[in-house]
Amino acid sequence: MRLYIRNVIFLIMMISLVAAGSGFGFAEGSEEPPSDQNEEESSVFPDVDPGYWAKEDIEAMYQLGAFRVKEGEPFRPYDPVTRAEFIHMMLVAKGITPIPGMVRQSFADVTQDDWFYPYVETAYSLGITNGKSSGENRYFKPDDPMTRQEVIVMAIRARGDFWTARSMNWQKASQILSPFKDQHQLADWGRKPMALAVQVKMARGYQEEDGSLTLRPDYLTTRAEAASFIYRGIYKPRQELQKIEIDGIPIFYKEVKSMEATAYTTGETGVGYWTATDMYVRKGIVAVDPNVIPYGTHLYVENYGFAVAADRGSAIKNNKIDLYVPTLQEAYQFGRQYDVKVYILD
After folding, report:
1. pTM, whole model, 2 decimals?
2. Torsion from C-alpha of 298, 300, 305, 307, nearest 10 degrees
């Protein structure tokens, strides 16, 4: 358990940010922001006290069904969040329900018997996680704890902003990160996402006792931090979306487009295994005109499922979309379909 002491100025800043609801970031410490709650108020979890800084966010996430823990059981707020737990929390908060009957195994260490299987596979379809390759296999590492820069990268992807981060030039990223004295500790893959997170106030950093600002990119993220981070940054924006139910699956979306759809697969002329955005092709990858649907945007495509705009094609212009399917036979069977409803989720 790590407890950090903030100075009074930073406490005031954090309290005002939380009260204003501006962005989201990490917050923990032995000197926690005072709570307006009555100290006599009961808590859902015995190890989350009524005055605990993240109590409201934790209990709100509990009501959404984001935790595999029952009322009255310990929540373990200071334990590091695992990759499986984080993916589960994030998809629940985003309002994405795995489609029943999913049968595939994308990762060598995730099987259909695992409770997190449908969430990991759905996140993979959406490009929220790509796993880690080792030899001929791909691994998810479900029990690994997550560092803060890993959390930021995954959250940027979950919000549909990974291409925005990737398109940022290195000079701009360095300028944004320059106030933080430990920004050199960021991995190359974490610099641009962290810069975007700072720019849009997803991450605010920490003021140390010597007055310097830090990001603490390699610190492990606790379950309490993850719950608060996701609730404020993923769930709250969802409240502004429209909702429709399709085949029993709730879909939260910004807008819906009627598009002309085709299907493609590897093995066709000119089709490789990597997309224009450097994602490995799989079910859920779709090609779009990025001037119509930006790369990284999450979608729900009628009669196809959840998807991410991650590729392009020479014939995919304007109101057309090309859906990846596993086999050539499925691509032929799909043919060309008109007036396919495509729900924009981000």
Report:
1. 0.86
2. -20
